[in-house]
Amino acid sequence: MRNVKKFFANFREATVLLIVLLAGLVLSLISPHFFTWANLRSVLIGLSCTAILAIGTTIVMAGGAIDISLGAQLAMSGSIVGVLFIKGVPILLAILIALLSCAAVGLLNGIIISYTTLNPMICTLGTQFVCQGIANVITTGSPQSLRSAPEFFSFIGKGFVGGFFPMIFLEFLILGIIVDVLMRRSSMVRKVYYVGSNPQAATYSGINAKKVKTMTFVFAGVMAGIAGVLTTARLSVASPAAGGTVTMTAMSAAVIGGASASGGSGTILGTTLALILLSLVDNALVLMSVSVYWQNLISGVILLAAVLLDYFSHTKKG
Amino acid sequence: MEKSEEILTVENLTKSFGPVKVLDNVQLSVKKGEVHALVGENGAGKSTMMNIVSGVYQRDSGRICLDGEEVNFISPRQACMAGIGFVHQEMSLCPHMSVAENVFMWNIPTKRGGAVDFVRLYEETNLLLRRFGAGFDARTRTGELNVAQQQVVEIARALSMNVKLIIFDEPTSSLTESETENLYHSIEMLKDSGVGVIYISHRMPEIFRICDRATVLRDGKYVDTLSIHEVTPDDIVLKMVGRSLGDYYPPKASVPPGKELLRVENLSGKRFQNISFTLKKHEILGFSGLVGSGRTEVMQALCGFLPYTQGQIWLEGQKFCGKVKSSELIRLGLFYLTEDRKANGLFLNMTTRRNISVTVLEEFCHHGFLNNEEEKNLSSAMIHEMDVRVASDLTPAGAMSGGNQQKVMIAKWLVAHPRVLIMDEPTRGIDVGSKSEIHHKLRKLSEEGIGVIVVSSELPEIIGVCDRVVVMHEGSVVGEVVGKDINEETLMLMASNRKKGVDAICEM
């Protein structure tokens, strides 16, 4: 029993991977449609944008904060790139402006949170409405269709590499692997964990904690921006509602994958595996023709189970 | 059952936290109208014992009797209702509420229908406050009071509950002399009214001034109960440490001080003025003074964590003035080890390895990538050197004992090539063994040519470890003592800023 506890405590990613594999096995037994490339491919395409945004969520949480404006930043970025393109701005410039806008929002979040004692939740609650508002204003509240999107833009959103591998998932994979490796091995990103674990101790150890924390928000903003651009590219529609429940899904995935609300932990691998798990559950419901209204309920139960398991495997007796 | 003279008896009390036995079969008995000192070093188990008596923790085994009846409190509220008052070291008051609301926190007087009876609330509080000659009103916002006044509020709260037993946990640690005098007066009054008083303190003069008996604990075990009138302070200290102080502390510097490592001139800032001192090679410099005398603030300003308005600093001949970044000073080898290792020293949920490597990430970072192997070797070497007792270097820092945590704190700075090491309360709350090991380590570092400054509230530590001591009082340096002059009497007198003889303390 103690070993089991230890395993769950120390190898979060392995645990989640195990559950993902188990879920996959069960699903392929239940439904003959599950283990087909068409089905898996649609699952991967579906989770890619959320996964890119969740990279940002994970970094912010590792740094000891929380950012609930990321979904709205995604909507803002997607709307900016779409509307600018429709208005005749060259697509590359439009993408750049979208990403810079999100970076600016991230910088604002970061500066406010690091240099005042404002609670991250409250601050990003505010910027969430600001970003959503910008998205609503520039799209006049309704989805804007991109009729003649350039081939490059369609390709990054809905293209297939070699005719079968979804480009959008490949993009996430590249970003995810780079950031995961950086979080494990780069001294710069290691500082994020230190700051998240104990900002005072980090300061006393010679780390500029405020700067590091600010940068996590900027980085998360850029990730949300990329996710927004890709969402618009994939659907050929700039929708102000694209943010939807992405923020909360990403946050759940980060927590299930090992991030802690009190900072100092979390990896991209863990978050991604958890997100895959959540997506598989949704997929299973579809395959089993269960009403999609069950999705939230089941995701919620998984989240609670994960954090409770974490709590009990870390608390000692006495 | 006939009511005994003893208000509280504790027998065979045992308590463990995880694998660590913090109390092993301890006992205590307090009589009505008695002031009973509970003494022992940090970590001896005093606070744990009192926390069990007052219902904060639950015992593993043993018997506690209050006024002749066995009790088993499962919450502080229950203990409070039964008549046990606790005046905490850290105030447990709500700063945003009025004094009266704090005093009657647990039984606010109400009118019929449940509305708060403010008239009675304020009247009764003022009545209590007047008994102690408090110069503030029941309507005052508690946060506006100073520490001594807040303590009065805590005492008043205990009295409002009709206490039978009241516990003071190092009540004088942040009081001035006259405030301490008022406190003694309050305690006398409590005593006269037949209340039992438990007084936790390590200040011998205080204990000999107001206590009747003293119970000594050491490493979680009961040592003895002594009648104060029949013993000397040395007897008690001896029982506390269990050996004479001679072999407990490392030898003093064997070589004369060498060249100057650090010079500070006229450093002034918020809460300290005109601080000047020097630190030389091969010596351990102590900073003594009461809590709140500005020692910590001076060190933090020196290391760039607090601003200062004027003054100059020379670190190995290099001059600094004005705003200097703390990271720059760290790069030059001026390190500050915080007094509160849990709040701002360690990364409790991270591994020991990462706690040690934090200061030198760049050293095993090649082309931006960390070399795990080098990091592992470094931390293993340091764990060995500091004799940190830990299962593996992947154990989280939060899972270690205080002594081991402190060793990790030192280790993390040793790897970063220190020139001057400033240790604020280097052995607070750790066991006697680790304490001694750390003291010996400090001496060794000083012999190796690293400048060491020890800031401490514990006089025995200052006396046992330092070669030269700077004494501070209310933000200023009141003097410096060397060699044989470093003794409890001189330091206490200087810390309270009195130049008269010892009698002065007693006559107060």
UniProtKB/TrEMBL annotation, chain A:
* Stretches that traverse the bilayer: 44-70, 91-115, 160-183, 217-235, 268-287, 293-312
* UniProt entry tagged with the keyword Membrane: yes
- Name the major location: membrane
Could you list this entry's UniProt keywords, alphabetically sorted. Cell membrane, Membrane, Transmembrane, Transmembrane helix
Mode of membrane association: Multi-pass membrane protein
One GO cellular component term noted in the UniProt record for this chain: plasma membrane
Q: From the UniProt annotation, give the residues forming the signal peptide.
A: none
Q: Output one GO MF annotation.
A: transmembrane transporter activity
Compartments, record wording: Cell membrane
Looking up PANTHER family in the UniProt record yields: ABC TRANSPORTER PERMEASE PROTEIN YPHD-RELATED-RELATED, RIBOSE IMPORT PERMEASE PROTEIN RBSC
Q: What is this protein called?
A: ABC transporter permease
From TrEMBL, chain B:
Q: Report the domain of life of the source organism.
A: Bacteria
Q: How does it sit in the membrane?
A: Peripheral membrane protein
Q: Where in the cell does this protein reside? A: Cell membrane
Q: Name one Pfam family in it.
A: ABC_tran
A GO cellular component annotated for this chain's UniProt record is:
plasma membrane
Cite the PROSITE patterns for this sequence.
ABC_TRANSPORTER_1, ABC_TRANSPORTER_2
Does the record carry Repeat as a key word?
yes
Q: Which InterPro entries match?
A: AAA+_ATPase, ABC_carbohydrate_import_ATPase, ABC_transporter-like_ATP-bd, ABC_transporter-like_CS, P-loop_NTPase
Q: Which CDD domains match?
A: ABC_Carb_Monos_I (cd03216), ABC_Carb_Monos_II (cd03215)
* Keywords per UniProt: ATP-binding, Cell membrane, Membrane, Nucleotide-binding, Repeat, Sugar transport, Translocase, Transport
- Which intervals hold domain ABC transporter? 8-244, 256-499
Query: Is Repeat tagged as a keyword?
Result: yes
Instruction: Give the matching SMART domains.
Output: AAA
Q: Give this protein's Gene Ontology molecular function annotations.
A: ATP binding; ATP hydrolysis activity
Protein name according to UniProt = Sugar ABC transporter ATP-binding protein
* Native organism: Anaerofilum hominis
Q: What is the lineage of its organism?
A: Bacteria, Bacillati, Bacillota, Clostridia, Eubacteriales
